[in-house]
Amino acid sequence: MKHDKLSNNQHSSVSQTFYHGIIPPPDMMQKYQEIDTTLPNRIMKLAEEEGIHRRIMEKKILNLAKVRELVGVISGIISVLVVGILSYLYLLKSAPREGAAIAIAVTIGLASVFVLRKVKQSRRKQ
To answer: How many Cβ atoms are within 10 Å of 95's Cβ, its own excluded?
Structure first.
């Protein structure tokens, strides 16, 4: 096997170019245009489509978060109403201990949910 060796007066160099973002720098776009005249336009179109897609996905995520929060609030209201009615019925049926126990348990549960949510939100802000 024959190996090519660099003589004392020969040099070798390697260079790399990096860029950040969707659109390459102008000099690189010009080199792309030398390869294929349609490449810069296709790259720009791709970047525009990517931006549109990203905005659509962000809107979907925000809308889903709103729906999830609304469902949680509605579920909480229904749960409180059901437990309130159940506690009231126990009180009417001469079972004040059971009615009071249900009301206290639910109150503690709801309070803990709100406290834990506030703690979780404050940790996210930090």
So the answer is: 14
pTM, entire model: 0.56
Locate tokens 């003589």: which residue? 7
pLDDT score of 68: 92
* 105/111 Cα distance (integer angstroms): 10
Distance from the first to the final alpha carbon of the chain = 63
